[in-house]
Write a structure and sequence with these properties.
By secondary structure, the chain is mainly beta. The protein has one helix at residues 192-195; strands spanning 16-21, 27-32, 40-45, 55-59, 61-64, 67-72, 81-87, 90-91, 93-98, 113-120, 126-133, 136-144, 148-156, 165-170, 173-178, 185-191, 205-213, 221-224, 242-244, 247-253, 259-264.
């Protein structure tokens, strides 16, 4: 990442935007606008219904040297999902993305945990991945033992109480193990054998979702890893596979950065 800006495109070329993320969860977009009929940068949620909650319109204001700027403040709510950037219904290409402030981010504990990460899509477009969690269980270190995985993390917006458990979920099947911790932290150890009592068929897999129930009466909270600059850690965080007769098991992340245990025959 640098402090430079993307050179201005020639008129008629696809719009391109530089993006800077701040530690509070806000985003700033800078771009050269030669032929825009409406000075508004639009964020549109992919797969939405088209309602007001699926579109955010950010006015573009002059930023000097022929460039314009749009701001997505941290106070503006953005529903969970993937948001495409559009200028006059044209897809915006990614320029320079400065996301250094997202690394090791500590969110404000007064409200929900809001995460926005700008990223380039496979089609070469600029998009924003958004999460909005209240409470939020942030996964940290994952330790691997003999047939177990131990998950440590930080809980935002709630505290562990009596009866706190971690849950591995597969459809309507739920397996619970005790969760410990204090001062906003949690930890639990999950034996793979408990998940493999009904192993998947040959050539198939079971993807057990991991949740945290802060106390016996609380609603479960999805365990995810969101507080950095990685928008899709599925192929980045790869853990060693535990091999046992009849199954293979390993922790893994989904494309939405949710933590699971993958069980294969």
């Amino acid at each position: 990442m640098t402090d430079a800006t993307t050179p201005p495109p020639a008129p008629g070329t696809p719009p391109r935007a530089d993006c800077v993320a701040d530690a509070a969860g806000g985003l700033t977009f800078d771009m050269a606008v030669h032929d825009a009929t409406a000075p508004v940068l639009v964020l549109r949620r992919r797969g939405g219904t088209g309602g007001p909650a699926d579109e955010a319109r950010l006015p573009l204001t002059p930023a000097g040297e022929g460039r314009a700027r749009a701001a997505l403040p941290s106070t503006m709510e953005l529903a969970e999902g993937r948001w495409d950037l559009l200028l006059d219904e044209r897809a915006v290409e990614p320029g320079i993305r400065d996301v250094r402030s997202l690394v090791d981010r500590i969110p404000d504990e007064k409200g929900p945990v809001a995460v926005r990460i700008p990223y380039p899509t496979a089609e070469g477009r600029l998009a924003v991945r958004s999460w909005l969690r209240a409470p939020h269980a942030e996964a940290g270190d994952i330790g691997l033992g003999d047939g177990t995985c131990t998950v440590e993390g930080v809980l935002y917006g709630a505290e562990l109480g009596p009866g706190a458990v971690a849950e591995a979920r597969l459809g309507d099947r739920v397996h619970q193990v005790p969760a410990d911790g204090g001062k906003g932290r949690f930890t639990f150890t999950l034996p793979y054998d408990d998940l493999a009592r009904t192993p998947p068929p040959a050539g198939k897999q079971h993807l057990w979702e991991l949740w945290l129930r802060p106390d016996g009466d609380a609603e479960p909270v999805r365990i995810s890893r969101l507080l950095d600059d990685v928008w899709d850690r599925k192929s980045i965080h790869v853990y060693p596979v535990h091999r046992r007769e009849g199954y293979r098991a390993a922790p893994c992340y989904t494309t939405d950065n949710d933590l699971c245990v993958r069980l294969t025959a």
